[in-house]
Design brief:
- This protein has a 15-stranded mixed β-sheet that branches. It has a four-stranded antiparallel β-sheet with strand order 11-10-13-16, with no helix packed on it.
- It has two domains: about 210 residues, TIM Barrel (Alpha-Beta Barrel), CATH 3.20.20.140; about 90 residues, Immunoglobulins (Immunoglobulin-like, Sandwich), CATH 2.60.40.
- It has four helices and 19 strands.
- With about 325 residues, it is α+β, with helices and mostly antiparallel strands.
Length: about 325
Amino acid sequence: MSSLSFPPARAVGRRAAWYRGDCHVHSVHSDGELTPEELAVRARAAGLDFMATTEHNSAAEPGAWGHLAADDFLIVLGEEVTTKNGHWLALGINPGEVVDWNHRVRDGLIDQCLDQVHRVGGLCVAAHPHAPYPSGDFMFPFRGFDVVEVWNGAWTSDRPWNADNGAALAEWGRSLTADIHTGSWRPAMGNSDTHLEGQIGIPHTVVFAEELSTEAILAGIRAGRSWIAESADVDVSFTANADGRVAGVGEQLTTHGGQVEVQATVRGAPVGTVSFHTDRGKVHRASLPGDGAGVVQWDTTAEDSAFVRIEVRHPNGHVAALTNPIILA
């Protein structure tokens, strides 16, 4: 089989850096309208560094994707596992590998399917858990899944935020307090679920990875070292500082009981708002100027806040960006 039959698992990239990518994409090889070539071109034009192939219940076609990878563009192999009780993404599976989809909760097969993906170092993502169509509602327990897709792309290309995303975000946000307390919280991610022209990268996940490789990207997502952007026009830097010790998204900050300065630097959300969320709910809100660029700061302690995360919203309430939490200890 040609070396270009499947994409390489590593690209040159920019070494340790923030990388933008879309991990839920469909081509003409399942029910999408775009070819792999068209998707790769549009992904790069959208400012993405990586994308995942996630055809429904099937492996990536040999020869369809390998030639589209580049030194600065990684293609991750995956599958959207479309069961009768919900959909999930198997990311980082082997070439030609297929995860069984023809089952439901009562069949008791989900754990062995998750184990199949985990054995090869892959990532299991609960996809669009409140999608309003048959089999779209996610009925499996989140136990065993690594990540929750809280932001799924538009049903039509001009609507980047839907009500079902609001339900998924609220559910995930409520679960964080208990999950962080037990040390087993699941990060959030966002993907376009591209089927049509004009959808790819809306939204996408921005991941801090040690290199541009499948292993490093999935490790960054698994650790929560990521945030979700509506598009590449939006940029967020989010840190917490305690007496010179600094932590970023997905990291834990040891505070020694002292004051914590939390700072968000945002670009690309004109006249938007930045809200800070902790285990006490929404605790602070500030407005962004007309050009959408600004710095917002808020102070807290580990006693008052087990974690901090932010949401950036447009004036109409639609989300422009949201982060995974910084854990305060």
